[in-house]
Write a structure and sequence with these properties.
single chain, 189 residues, alpha/beta, five-stranded mixed beta sheet, 8 helices, globular
């Protein structure tokens, strides 16, 4: 790649979230053109809080602090899968909503991805296991140690999925194709 292409590549920060009511994964990546690097990833432990309301408060506070620290251009969330337990789905939806509210309070664009879409994007297989996703991320993002809780790598996968989706660049400007073409001259020939 010549120097003019590398200097014109815009740097973006993507926060990926894997919502949960016991453990919530998060992953922050920085992208420059097609290059990606991890800034941070981990989990928010929520099972130690007694009430659902307290868990929601902690989700909002922790996601807000991650946003404050990394100032992401985009937030990508894994959409809840549909289960049979209505109460669990309701609680998971609330957790996702609170995380979204933290991003919306800072006017950060949000995109949701189905779990199958995230797995397909990272591994090429929409039915991949959490372990397969983590293994592929180790290759893509060049890190060595897999965390004990795969919710962290799931969140990284959501951020990587967002990067791989061509729609990431125009969502920030909100001005459509003309702005996309101006901001990404090397992507369209």
């Amino acid at each position: 790649m010549n120097k003019s292409n590398t200097t014109s590549a815009k740097e973006r920060i993507i926060l990926g979230l894997d919502p949960g009511t016991s453990i919530m994964g998060y992953g922050v990546i920085q992208t420059t053109g097609q290059k990606m690097k991890i800034l941070q990833f981990g989990v928010i432990h929520l099972s130690k809080y007694a009430t659902h309301e307290l868990k929601l408060q902690k989700i909002f506070e922790r996601v807000s602090s991650i946003i404050e620290e990394y100032n992401p251009d985009f937030v990508a969330l894994e959409a809840p899968f549909f289960g049979k337990n209505v109460q669990s789905m309701l609680k998971l939806g609330r957790a996702q909503g609170v995380a979204m509210a933290a991003a919306l309070a800072r006017e950060i664009p949000i995109t949701e991805y189905a779990p199958r879409k995230v797995k397909q994007s990272v591994t090429g297989n929409g039915n991949a296991s959490k372990e397969q996703v983590a293994s592929m991320l180790k290759v893509i993002l060049s890190f060595e140690e897999t965390p004990k809780l795969l919710d962290a790598t799931d969140a990284l996968a959501v951020a990587v999925c967002h990067h791989f989706q061509a729609g990431a660049a125009p969502a920030k400007s909100g001005k459509g194709w003309q702005a996309f073409l101006r901001e990404n001259p090397g992507r369209v020939k």
